Amino acid sequence: MPLMPAADIDVTEPLVRRLLTEQFPDLAGLPLRLAANGWDNAIFRLGSNLAVRLPRREAAAHLIEHEQRWLPQLTRGLAMLTPTPVRCGTPSSFFPWRWSVTPWIQGTTAAAQPLSARRAWATELARFVDGFQQPAPADAPVNPVRGVPLSTRDEHVRRRLASGLVPRVREVDRLWGTLAALPPWEGPALWLHGDLHPANLVIQAGALAAVIDFGDLTAGDPATDLAAAWLVFDAEGRRLFMEYLNARRDIGTGTWHRARGWALVMATALLAHSDDNPAFRQLGLDVLPQVLDG
Question: What confidence score (pLDDT) does residue 294 get?
């Protein structure tokens, strides 16, 4: 099973301090410490209100470019807090990729919150999705694994099912066969967050405070983000989420069925590829019964 990819560049505090001194000297004197190292990016806390987000491998470098280009306009007017860049760093002689200074978002992820507690902000997340899912231009970022027809994920899902790491595999196989055969989205390509699961939602005092990690930003089938109905919520939270969106626009049962399919795609990925991340595997174990039983 794949582990977290090795970094192409070791992103260290001295390197980040050097970049800040070169490009944003007014920020270079603020306290700086490593906050997180993910698959794609290293995150440093800068002072009390800012963060620095830098790619740690070439395969992820273009994701920062997408965020810098598109997020400021996509999040303008939305009430939800997001890590929209406030400063856009550029490649340097000692660091080859773009990087960003963003707001520091305090809180815990929704993955640490019980499913039943998430019902309280189901409508808030639905409001964000409704505002964000606007028609996208032809030059929107292309993501080969988000926003695309469900059938294109069939080989990957079936490989995960064969891994022995997915519980209730016969039920999953049967449901996936039905959902993967659904007709694809034929409407306009809509903007998508692309990875709307509990670990990318920030909670403060029990309420939804922010949506983070827009690295999979793309456009296409809205069902990809509507999968949050199963990825984030229990049956009651899902009802509230769906009711709000159904009242705002004509989504249709076909799109909701595809959304359930996308939730199954995400759940199988979390279960089959998180042997080095117990929290993500637990997220997959939480999501799977919601998809199968809901």
Answer: 82
The answer to whether the CB of 64 falls within 8 A of the CB of 40 is: no
* Orientation of helix 253-272 relative to helix 169-180, angle to 10°: 140
Pick from 233, 163, 225: which is nearest to 193 by CA?
225
**Which tens digits make up the pLDDT trace of 58-96?**
988 988 999 999 999 999 999 899 999 999 999 999 999
Amino acid present at 32 = L
33: enclosing H helix or E strand: strand 32-37
Q: What pLDDT, in 10s, does the model give residues 163-178? A: 999 999 999 999 999 9
Closest CA to 90 of 23, 158, 11: 23
Evaluate whether 242 touches 160 at the Cβ level (below 8 Å): no
Environment class of 251 (CB within 10 Å of its CB; exposed 0-12, middle 13-18, buried 19+): middle
The token duo for 148 is 């695309």
Residues 224, 197: Cα–Cα separation, whole Å: 11
* Amino acid identity, position 284: G
> What stretches of 78-198 show up as alpha helix (H) in DSSP?
115-118, 122-132, 154-161, 169-180
pLDDT tens digits for 126-159? 999 999 999 999 999 999 999 999 999 999 999 9
How many other β-carbons are positioned within 10 Å of the β-carbon of residue 239? 15
Give the amino acid at 44: F
Give the whole-angstrom CA distance, residue 146 versus residue 151: 12
Indicate the DSSP class of residue 4: P
CA distances (Å), 47 to each of 26, 202, 204, 272, in order? Answer: 12, 20, 20, 38
Report yes or no: 124 and 132 within 8 Å, Cβ to Cβ: no
